[in-house]
């Protein structure tokens, strides 16, 4: 397979025992950064291959989810296949898994067994609640991480009880846990680099804790004052005006006019410059106290404008704003196009398909070069990995 020159993790070898989202998301980031990732799937493939839209039996999402990875199939209940996994571990720098706690041990492949094969192996473990604690054995998916981590409580609209608080639209718990696992893995590999006596580390990341880590100042506020932050809708209680406003075409425009200078520019742009001189709007604290009146004034302007036209007016006034983009907006936007955030790539299983760029850039490496190949079929690299790579690793 093609190498990844110029990428910072070129040469790092990772084994993925991942399914669904969290661990595969972690290794997708690491593979985009240049690491060699060998994704070990059961004989019938990662169950996520059955999710979402399909082209002739191939999952569209997996084109991105499995990109830049080598796919092999092994039955971890089979002794011969288990021996092959140990061989892969023997040549690896790290392993990422997201089984329920204890499952790896039941396969006879827990950290002690893996470190017996490779004492320097870094093992990143992702689970719903973590490897210990009273809830460790409970099943969990991303929605549970949102619920227990505190996020779903905040996504409700204030005062609305007839409808449940909505999820954010993507598997944010899994993605967060995957990012933290990738970060921890790289840190652990750095920690043993250059020290031949150093041993591998075990990293424990969970969905609930990953979401909980985003709760900003809510924990110290509760500890000091007993405050429990409540849902705030589209606004922010500590800054005004910051909200999302309905436009004449039924679309929404997010406007952030927080600072005093930007607020004055905003009021001039919407034809209400006199409000900038009012004592009740003189600074952010005063505006927060009178935010309902302020939001009403802004809405009175936006409902007379098409969203794109209103955005253009505020852009010209240097007021931070954006329409709420859907995927069509993202694909057609000139900034997305200029920065190759949306790339058309050739997928042997799907044909031409759009991929998102990796979320990081490195000088000397064009964004398109970071997508070296698309998500392969399950077991597509069995021969390459089990003959060529393992043969190279054998003394």
TrEMBL record:
Source domain of life: Bacteria
UniProt GO molecular function: transferase activity
Gene3D superfamilies: Crotonobetainyl-coa:carnitine coa-transferase, domain 1, formyl-coa transferase, domain 3
EC number: 2.8.3.-
Lineage summary: Bacteria, Pseudomonadati, Pseudomonadota, Alphaproteobacteria, Acetobacterales
Record's keyword terms, sorted: Transferase
Pfam families with a match to the protein in the record: CoA_transf_3
Xref: InterPro entries: CoA-transferase_III, CoA-Trfase_fam_III, CoA-Trfase_III_dom3_sf, CoA-Trfase_III_dom_1_sf
Class of enzymatic activity (EC top level): transferase
Listed name of the protein: CoA transferase
